[in-house]
Specification:
Elements: E1 2-6, H1 13-21, E2 38-47, H2 50-53, E3 63-65, E4 68-77, H3 92-98, E5 104-110, H4 129-149, H5 152-161, H6 166-173, H7 181-191, H8 203-217, E6 220-225, H9 232-242, E7 248-250, H10 253-264, E8 268-269, E9 278-279, H11 287-304, H12 309-320, E10 324-328, E11 346-348, H13 354-361, H14 363-367, E12 369-374, E13 379-381, E14 392-397
Parallel strand pairs: 1-4, 1-5, 5-6, 6-7, 10-14
Antiparallel strand pairs: 2-4, 3-4, 8-9, 10-11, 12-13, 12-14
């Protein structure tokens, strides 16, 4: 699973990326600071199984704070997209290609309106961020359409004359975007498209089809960034009224980055995604740092129930993609061979089974699968058992 960060230049994507990963990336307020995509590890926040078993875990990957497990996933930050990116403007083709691998997208929007459509600095409030929300989805939809539309008439005739299955032909054209045949068939059915003769399809049919396929393969959550700027709140309220069908989460990537770095240096106690922090080493803070932290507490954390960064990450993984966290563990032993308790937590797609989980851990476990055990309920389950959020599963295998 890969989550992609998208948006126009200077919207705060690189700051969001660094806040989410604490990676060393270049951050500057000018277009195309990021040229090659940055790849890093972000974390989703889940209740750790250690609380159920009243023990203390030893994560092999990620980390655990106060019973909250932070589970890793791959996050990519591509360079900013500008209007007409699908036509190649602003290195558009290159950057769109970088997004092929992403399963879901986080659209970082400068809600303060302090950067214009091309990412150039302007006075806060002088640019309408609602225009940015609209343009990006349009650009990605047109990118999909451009791939399918290329040589469409010849393609349609070939499909019709050879009596190919339409859904399979469309899927083959868009396979790089993780489009599947069942997905295509379902959307064609909902749209009442002619499934006998593809040459009857109109340009509007193609546009709608590719938009629906994009929504299915690249769902988007809006990170309404720069909420620490006073004008952002009014813009956020307008955005929610104008786009009631979109998920728009207020955030301040800069505030989250400041909190995480302060926690890393031992100045504060802070759990990402929480609504407050506590001073840990007040003597190590100068007056300016104290004022900055208090500003974040008053104007970001309390107003928005957190900085928003962790909320956006969790929404992308658990709401858009509906992934579930699963812990491997044993009925009689929660630790691994090295004595680490509950060392792993895996993120699996929805409707995954116990057999799928075995295959995720190691293919040999799946080959020798005998049964699985729901450790929390202390019940034996079969290979087709559908996993549930937070399950702890033991795999019994002959391998």
């Amino acid at each position: 699973m890969i989550i992609g960060l998208v948006g126009k230049p200077s919207a705060g994507k690189s700051t969001f990326f660094k806040a989410a990963t604490l990676a060393e990336v270049e951050i500057a307020n000018y277009p195309f600071t990021t040229i090659k995509p940055n790849t890093g590890i972000g974390y989703v926040k889940v209740e750790c199984a250690e609380t159920f078993f009243k023990t203390k875990c030893n994560p092999r990957t990620g980390y655990c704070l106060n019973g909250i497990r932070f589970v890793p996933f791959q996050l990519i930050d591509v360079a900013g997209l500008v209007p007409d990116a699908h036509l190649g403007k602003g290195r558009g083709n290159q950057f769109l290609d970088d997004l092929r691998q992403a399963d879901a997208l986080i659209h970082v929007v400068d809600m303060s309106g302090s950067t214009n459509a091309h990412g150039e600095p302007v006075e806060a409030g002088s640019h309408d961020p609602l225009e940015d929300i609209t343009f990006l989805e349009v650009e990605i939809d047109l990118w999909y359409l451009g791939i399918l539309n290329k040589g469409w008439e010849r393609f349609a005739r070939t499909v019709f004359q050879s009596k190919q299955k339409i859904a399979k032909a469309i899927t083959d054209q868009l396979s790089a975007f993780k489009v599947t045949e069942p997905m295509t068939e379902d959307i064609m059915k909902k749209m009442n498209l002619n499934t006998e003769n593809i040459t009857f399809w109109t340009a509007e049919d193609l546009r709608k089809l590719t938009t629906e396929l994009r929504k299915a393969t690249k769902p988007i959550v809006i990170a309404a960034n720069k909420m620490d700027v006073s004008v952002s709140q009014a813009n956020l309220e307008r955005a929610k009224r104008q786009f009631p069908n979109l998920t728009i989460i207020p955030c301040s990537a800069e505030s989250e980055l400041a909190l995480r770095e302060a926690a890393k240096k031992g100045m504060i106690d802070y759990v990402p995604g929480e609504k407050d922090y506590s001073l840990k080493n007040e003597a190590a803070l100068n007056e300016n740092q104290k004022k900055a932290l208090e500003f974040i507490r008053k104007n970001v954390l309390r107003k928005n129930d957190g900085s928003g960064v962790q909320q956006v990450l969790n929404h992308a993984v658990f709401e858009l993609l509906r992934y579930i966290p699963i812990f491997p563990g044993g009925m009689n032993k929660l630790g691994d061979q090295y004595g680490n308790i509950l060392p792993d937590c895996f993120l699996l797609p929805p409707n995954s089974t116990a057999y799928d989980f075995a295959n995720t851990i190691h293919s040999d476990l799946a080959k020798g699968f005998i049964r699985a055990i729901d450790v929390k309920k202390r019940q034996i389950v079969g290979r087709d058992y559908t996993l549930k959020y937070g399950d702890v599963i033991e795999i019994i295998s002959s391998k």
